[in-house]
Amino acid sequence: MLKTVLLLLLAYIAYKFIFGFVIPVTRATRNVRRQFKAAQEEMAARMQEQQGYGPYGANQQRATTANTRTDAAKPTSKGDYIEFEEVKE
User: Fold this and answer.
1) Positions of the region Disordered (predicted)?
2) I need a surface site. Which of 10, 55, 77, 86 has the fewest CB within 10 A?
3) Where are the alpha helices (H) located in 1-89, listed in sequence order?
């Protein structure tokens, strides 16, 4: 009789441990891993985009190089330049 009660008590404790601790912890761990993986993929995509390898980065890089070429080809005018001399007292 005592052996049966102890086995039932042990089975109840094992059930509570498995369904109250082990399963929620494994689910939470799986969710956290998925979120970290998604964050890493998003960060890698942003880095590639910033470096000019993404879908929009190549167009941006071409546009900035084209702007610098046209700016370099324009003659620069000095405009109203006032020479400054320091006055010592």
Assistant:
1) 52-78
2) 86
3) 2-17, 23-51, 57-73
